[in-house]
Design brief:
With 428 residues, the chain is α/β, with parallel strands linked by helices. It is built from 16 helices and 15 strands. A hairpin with a 2-residue loop joins strand 2 and strand 3. Helix 7 packs parallel to helix 8 and helix 12 (288-310) crosses helix 15 (385-401).
């Protein structure tokens, strides 16, 4: 196997390098790649050195099935305190009555919600995947759409906004047990209050999946769903800048059902090192500097959206209210996948993505999805967004023309700027 840059990399992980030099070289290559490129995937971020360190502690060595004070293994004196710390911090940051920090990731967390509030064959409702929803909100290829009867709502063709009239009509006609609001490609503020009214009228449990915007909610840069919903589901590794894990939060009345669904319903022992890292991330999220960060993420996204519009790009819904921008490249005559791969060669990391009412297939869609959490973590501000938009514009045009020289030139420019803004936890 040929490992990129292997011969140029310093030894940053001596124990790993001694035990497995091939794997150590791959880790080093990834560190360099993350350091040199402009990461615009909205579901990615950089964790702090403290979160990174907590993720690799000896807590990895302990098995802890159950919950604090109610474990199936002995020797939990410290683990119980770690988990309790994470739970209390989650409750404080998000203002919830109950929190479960054990879900391994967002998808098992959402499956636990189904297990807690529905039986196989029951109807669940969420946003259609091609419209910006998530697989685990009852979409057909997911287990949540195979074991449960999924019905989906979408967005309006003319505005790109969630069609709340359709949501209400579907909810009253289909009477789902569970309604999900939130998704993976929603550039606008979610109207949790309106969803709450609809769910109460339909007699459904309302779940806000805030995986993408959890950090914005924690930092006061997006309205909180807590006053309006029954359950909040979130990952911890996107705008929240934590490890790759998840949390379920709820009103106290739903605590027992959710806890039982997570364990023993779906999972065995929690990943204690991840729980510790979640606790660290939540402490960071509760501080004033994180509030500044969350607002800067939104300011950067809005500035970038404005610069892209000036350059003629077609943005779904016309812009953004949060961290995410969805670009429809149909008018550019460059498919999303071709554009994404060209941008990658130019050192700009995005993902190809469907756009509402896309006429192309999901694996070869019309759009690309970008966001500002990672670049904001590196310290870039609104003054840099014109340059970022210019790079995207040049790279997309180069993709259409097959101009590799321009892509190489952009990559060199990107690397130069990134060198001036080191990423947390990466080599300088």
């Amino acid at each position: 196997m040929t490992i990129p840059y292997a011969e140029q990399l310093p030894v940053r992980h001596p124990a790993l390098a001694a035990a497995d030099p091939e794997l150590a070289a791959l880790v080093g290559a990834e560190e360099r790649l993350q350091a040199e490129t402009l990461r615009l995937i909205p579901s990615e971020n950089y964790v702090s050195p403290a979160v990174l360190e907590a993720s690799g502690t000896v807590l990895q060595n302990k098995y802890s099935e159950g919950y604090p004070g109610r474990r199936y293994y002995e020797g939990q004196q410290n683990i119980d305190l770690v988990e309790a710390l994470a739970v209390e911090r989650a409750k404080a940051v998000f203002g919830v009555e109950h929190a479960n920090v054990q879900p391994y990731s967002g998808s098992p967390a959402n499956l636990a919600v189904h297990l807690a509030f529905a039986e196989p064959g029951d109807t669940v409702m969420g946003m259609a995947l091609p419209m910006g929803g998530h697989l685990t909100h009852g979409w057909g290829v997911s287990v949540t759409g195979r074991w449960f009867r999924g019905v989906q709502y979408g967005v309006r063709r003319d505005t790109g906004l969630v069609d709340l009239d359709q949501v209400r009509e579907l909810a009253l006609r289909e009477r789902p047990k569970v309604i999900f609001c939130g998704g993976t490609a929603l550039p606008r503020t979610i109207d949790f209050a309106a969803f709450g009214e609809i769910a109460r009228e339909a007699g459904a449990v309302l779940v806000a999946d805030i995986a993408h915007i959890a950090g914005l909610v924690a930092g006061g840069a997006h309205p909180s769903p807590v006053p309006h919903v029954d359950v909040v589901s979130t990952t911890t590794h996107k705008t929240l800048r934590g490890p790759r894990g998840a949390m379920l939060m709820s009103r106290g009345e739903h605590a027992k059902a959710l806890d039982k669904a997570v364990f023993p319903g779906l999972q065995g022992g929690p990943h204690n090192q991840t729980t510790a890292a979640i606790a660290v991330a939540l402490r960071e999220a509760g501080g004033p500097s994180f509030r500044d960060y969350a607002h800067a993420v939104v300011a950067n996204a809005r500035a970038l959206a404005e610069e892209l519009v000036v350059r003629g790009f077609d943005l779904v819904s016309g812009g953004t209210d949060n961290h995410l921008i969805l670009i429809d490249l149909t008018a550019n005559d460059v498919p999303g996948k071709i554009a994404a791969k060209a941008l990658d060669r130019a050192g700009i990391v995005v993902n190809h993505n469907t756009v509402p009412y896309d006429t192309r297939k999901p694996f070869d869609p019309s759009g690309i999805r970008i966001g500002t959490p990672s670049l904001t973590s590196r310290g870039l501000g609104t003054a840099h967004m014109a340059q970022v938009a210019d790079w995207i514009d040049r790279a997309v045009k180069a993709a259409g023309a097959g101009d590799e020289d321009t892509l190489r030139a952009v990559r060199a420019e990107v690397a130069e700027l990134m060198a001036a803004f080191p990423a947390p936890g990466l080599p300088v």
